Amino acid sequence: MYSMTTLTPRRTAILTFIRDRIAQQGQPPSLAEIAEAFGFASRSVARKHVLALTEAGFIEVNPNQARGIRLLNQPARPDWLDVPVLGRVAAGLPIGADAEVHSRLQLDPTTFAKTPDYLLRVQGDSMIEDGILDGDLVGVRRSAEAVNGQIVVARLDGEVTIKRFERHGDSVRLLPRNPAYQPIVVGPDQDLAIEGVFCGLVRQG
């Protein structure tokens, strides 16, 4: 096994970049992101450095994955959360639910107010005043109940959206946090189910 001192400064910096990206975002960088970060002309230059780190025993690479880099001989982080990314959720108009597990992320539990059961990727901008942006991964804790004002993931007539929940008597509205969007008024003949409550988000660069 090589030590850090046997690596060139550039490869040491690349290894540090990989470690930092995993720590901050829960997943490794792609070759394209490494190339961009270090000003390489192509991914093939990044691949050469990654191969050298593989041969040195610092990482291993799954060639069938775009983000197939995995750190070796790292101290265990049993306190980190292993959270599945299930798909996408609309922050605009509802879109079809996608419950397939796309990937898993290793995340610091302090990222969330409560421990999430899964993550969903936001599509749309109707929640921007709550700081939820297009492309964010929102942490969701499974719950069939919600209180007024909570941000929820709701299934309405089989489609999923993220909104603020509001109930007055038998009347339920799903409220956007962007003045460009109108509240969704749930009709008496519509099928509404609360899938879970929002408990934090991950923003990936």
UniProtKB/TrEMBL annotation:
The active site is at 126 (for autocatalytic cleavage activity), 163 (for autocatalytic cleavage activity). Residues 84-198 form the Peptidase S24/S26A/S26B/S26C domain. One of its GO terms (biological process) is DNA repair. GO terms for molecular function: DNA binding; serine-type endopeptidase activity. Its EC number is 3.4.21.88. Keywords: Autocatalytic cleavage, DNA damage, DNA repair, DNA replication, DNA-binding, Hydrolase, Repressor, SOS response, Transcription, Transcription regulation. It is an enzyme of class 3 (hydrolase). Residues 31-51 bind DNA. The record marks 91-92 as: Cleavage. Pfam families: LexA_DNA_bind, Peptidase_S24. Residues 4-68 form the LexA repressor DNA-binding domain. InterPro entries: LexA, LexA-like, LexA/Signal_pep-like_sf, LexA_DNA-bd_dom, LexA_repressor, Peptidase_S24_LexA, Peptidase_S24_S26A/B/C, WH-like_DNA-bd_sf. It comes from the Bacteria. It catalyses: Hydrolysis of Ala-|-Gly bond in repressor LexA. Homodimer. PANTHER family: LEXA REPRESSOR (PTHR33516), LEXA REPRESSOR-RELATED (PTHR33516:SF2). HAMAP family: LexA. Belongs to the peptidase S24 family. NCBIfam families: lexA. Represses a number of genes involved in the response to DNA damage (SOS response), including recA and lexA. In the presence of single-stranded DNA, RecA interacts with LexA causing an autocatalytic cleavage which disrupts the DNA-binding part of LexA, leading to derepression of the SOS regulon and eventually DNA repair. This is LexA repressor. It comes from Pseudomonas trivialis. The gene is lexA.
